[in-house]
Amino acid sequence: MSLDDLNRMDFQAIALWPRWARVALLSVLWGMMTMILGAIFWQTPFSQWQQARDREHELKQEFQGKYLLSAQLEQKQQHLQAQQQQMHHLLQILPSQHQLPQLLDDITFQATKNQLVITRVGWLKPKLQQDYVSLPLELQLQGSFIDFGHFLDGIANLPRIVSVERLEISEQESNLGFKLVAASYRLSAKEQP
Questions:
Q1: Model's pTM, two decimal places?
Q2: Is 23 inside any structural domain?
Q3: Is 41 in the same domain as 103?
Q4: 161 is in which domain, residue-wise?
Q5: Are 139 and 184 in contact (CB under 8 A)?
Q6: Contact 158/105 with Cβ under 8 angstroms?
Q7: Residue 44 is assigned to a structural domain of this protein
Q8: Can you cite a GO biological process for this protein (predicted)?
Q9: Burial classification of residue 185, based on how many CB atoms lie within 10 Å of its CB (0-12 exposed, 13-18 middle, 19 or more buried)
Q10: Which of 38-52, 75-89, 99-113, 173-187 is predicted least confidently?
Q11: Cα–Cα distance between 22 and 18 in angstroms, integer?
Q12: Same structural domain for residues 52 and 106?
């Protein structure tokens, strides 16, 4: 069969075509219809399969992260327990309201022990912060620079937390004048355990 024979085939008289031509046409039509129907019916399940495959990858990564987290759980619990013990220890170092007179006594004892003359001592107004209260204590002392250094060393070694926030040094008759604000801290009432 030649190209001219194919051109002379009439699509309105398919029944008159040779058998092989009708089989070929039916095969082409069947293939096209199968592809169209396959695309229609299989597109949704295929896209669902792709989404499930992508979700599987995400879930595997999430599982891996949770597995690593659970593998470190005991270590993190021990770390948390150590931090809680540290926090408890630090809270014990902070003076409570009824320990402030003892703290004042300890500070004045350090001053007199180191041959400093106390000219003024007084609590200033407490400063409320978010989680704690700063308790400033104003001190005016007279003495030598070395004695003042020993005094600061003694304050640093007190069992309670005391920090020197402000310090002014002035020269007086035979020695130096020291004006300082030392502060201790305690938890605010709402933060008390």
A1: 0.54
A2: yes
A3: no
A4: 95-191
A5: no
A6: no
A7: yes
A8: type IV pilus-dependent motility
A9: buried
A10: 38-52
A11: 7
A12: no
